[in-house]
Write a structure and sequence with these properties.
This protein has 22 helices and 6 strands. By secondary structure, the chain is mostly helical. It is globular.
């Protein structure tokens, strides 16, 4: 155990704080947060957001810091071993296996998005005019969204070479270890991100009203578009669910990263203040930079059309903002700085996703650094190549992100909350968090972690699954003057298509009408046979319902989505097998029989 503990140590307190903050500060702070807030009530969104931060975010961060250091003092750094120390049961190590699957699979697609950010930064540096002329077309070609495998044929900064360079860069950092690699990079990257973010923020806030003919599109109006509260949103359960989810993903709760990072701390390190500091740094980047740059900048130049991009964080970052930079004075420089900042934010997150699996391979099998890095490199390269090849519609990326980056994270967080509250217990948890602490954590936090947080997480998980797993039909409008004779299988009739246009709804030219399994309903289907709208007979009109496809239906109808889910399950099965083998090895060594007393 002494040999294992000597392999990895943080060099300084500020180093571990910056590393943990770096793992949390990522693309979600600058792209996901502004769009989510604007969609869910603007300023009204911030009330449930900060309530979730206080009830869920900060307590869970403290729990992960505490459990990680507690097990680290007993010679354990990987999640399967940490969970076994907290809960001495043969199933504990398999629950810890989730903390290996999640960061590994997320890395497989996150590093791809990371290469997009660097590619955009280089594009601005080289001055490619096509990016500003048609950002949407540029993005679709850049990522190969039209056809599977097309990215392999692009070459240059749009092909696999850029991804390969970013991939290798991540592994060079992780090979250098916790102190010389992760900590050293974060000490440089985090301050640099702050400087770049402030430069872009100042430029945005000094834009004034770029178009005198549109005085309503000003900085103040842009900030109002982002921050003015819409009180009615507080009565919508989806707003509270979105706020909780944003806090959850923003702080990296349930990723299995913080618990691994904290295991390299000593008893003298202050986990209470360090955890609070890292949360505060993340919130500064998210609220003060992400909330004041992304959507306000888009509104200044695009007006209310900026709201059309809030449905997708990728759309906002890679479609809307290049349009903004093209119209902004010195936009080429500002765009380059912005996307380079996003690249740095992505790297600080992606390298943190590799360390938990590295720690497990070293601890579970006694591998040296170069062997564990090589094994992890092969695994992650397979997944990254899978996502890169199946680029059409970004289906593979979206499937990985939903089932692992959303569902499994909620499951792991719930597991960790129960481990802390019921296995470690409030008494031991309170003693551990205050060892070496310079601040006092109220006792009520321990009670929250035992009772409130698990129930809160279970409610979030239930609501999340209810909204996203099944398909839903939402009434869009009532079609008037369309007779039953017009509704026949084949092309969408002109009388019906004109009503879609009048409602501002898009119907592809190749869309067709098909009778559904229920004889009374009709479906408007796209080129890929996916259901876009459902028509239901109602006196005297037809009810037209927008069909929101759930992930269960996506898996059943899309071969790539099904293959992506099977790939994730294969990775899960492989890692669980590795955990089983490591567990047998630990049992033979008697690793958990003579642990230090509390």
């Amino acid at each position: 155990m002494k040999e294992q503990r000597s392999r990895e140590q943080w060099g300084s307190r500020i180093g571990v704080i910056l590393a943990v903050a770096g793992s949390a500060v990522g693309l979600g702070n600058f792209l996901r947060f502004p769009g989510t807030a604007a969609q869910n009530g603007g300023g009204a969104f911030m009330l449930p957001y900060f309530i979730s931060l206080l009830i869920l975010g900060i307590p869970m961060c403290w729990a992960e810091w505490t459990m990680g250091r507690y097990a680290g003092a007993r010679g354990c750094n990987s999640a399967p071993a940490i969970f076994t120390v907290i809960w001495p049961h043969r199933l504990a190590k398999y629950l810890g296996g989730l903390a290996l699957v999640i960061p590994l699979v997320i890395y497989m697609y996150y590093v791809l998005i990371e290469s997009w950010c660097l590619g955009y930064a280089l594009t601005y540096l080289l001055g490619d005019p096509t990016l500003g002329e048609n950002p949407t077309a540029f993005f679709r070609k850049f990522v190969g969204i039209e056809q599977n495998g097309v990215v392999y044929q692009e070459g240059g900064i749009r092909g696999t070479w850029l991804l390969l360079a970013v991939f290798v860069f991540n592994f060079v950092l992780i090979y250098r270890g916790v102190s010389k690699g992760i900590e050293t990079f974060c000490k440089v990257a985090m301050p640099l991100m702050l400087v770049l973010g402030i430069i872009v923020l100042v430029r945005v806030l000094t834009l004034g009203t770029p178009d005198p003919a549109k005085p309503e599109q000003s900085v103040l109006s842009g900030l109002g578009f982002m921050w003015n509260p819409k009180p009615a949103a507080l009565l919508n359960p989806a707003t509270w669910l979105a706020a909780s989810g944003q806090i959850f993903f923003s702080l990296s709760v349930g990723f299995g990263i913080i618990i691994n990072y904290a295991s390299y701390l000593t008893k003298k390190d202050d986990v209470a203040l360090s955890g609070l500091t890292s949360c505060s740094m993340n919130e500064f980047f998210e609220v003060c930079l992400g909330g004041l740059i992304t959507l306000p900048a888009a509104f200044i130049f695009l007006g209310l059309a900026a709201g059309d991009f809030t449905g997708s964080s990728f759309s906002l970052g890679f479609n809307a903002l290049p349009n903004v930079f093209a119209r902004m004075p010195a936009g080429q420089l500002v765009g380059g700085l912005w996307f380079f900042m996003l690249f740095l934010a992505a790297v600080t997150s992606s390298i943190s996703m590799l360390q938990p699996v590295i720690a497990f391979l070293e601890e579970g099998f006694g591998l040296k650094r170069h062997a564990s890095v090589a094994i992890l490199g092969i695994l992650s390269a397979l997944g990254c190549g899978f996502v890169l090849y199946f680029s059409e519609g970004l289906v593979a990326l979206d499937t990985f992100d939903f089932w692992v980056g959303s569902v499994l994270i909620l499951v792991l967080a719930l597991v960790q909350a129960c481990l802390y509250g019921w296995a470690l217990g409030p008494k031991r948890g309170d003693q551990e968090i205050h060892q070496g602490a310079n601040i006092r954590v109220p006792w009520v936090v321990q009670l929250m972690l035992k009772w409130v947080v698990p129930i809160y997480l279970l409610a979030i998980f239930t609501g999340f699954c209810f909204i996203n797993l099944p398909s839903h039909d939402k009434l869009a409008f009532s079609a008037r003057g369309v007779s039953a004779d017009d509704i026949v299988e084949g092309a969408v009739p002109a009388a019906l298509r004109s009503q879609f246009v009048a409602q501002g709804l898009e119907v592809p030219a190749e869309a067709t009408l098909r009778r559904s399994d229920q004889d009374t309903d009709w479906q408007v289907r796209g080129r890929d046979r996916s259901v876009l709208y459902v028509l239901r007979a109602a006196e005297p009109d037809w009810g037209v319902y927008a069909h929101e496809t759930g992930y269960v239906e996506k898996i059943g109808n899309n071969p790539v989505a099904l293959a992506s889910l099977l790939f994730v399950l294969a990775i899960l099965a492989f890692l669980m097998l590795m955990v089983h083998i490591a567990g047998r090895r630990w049992e033979a060594e008697g690793r958990f029989k003579n642990l230090p007393a509390d």
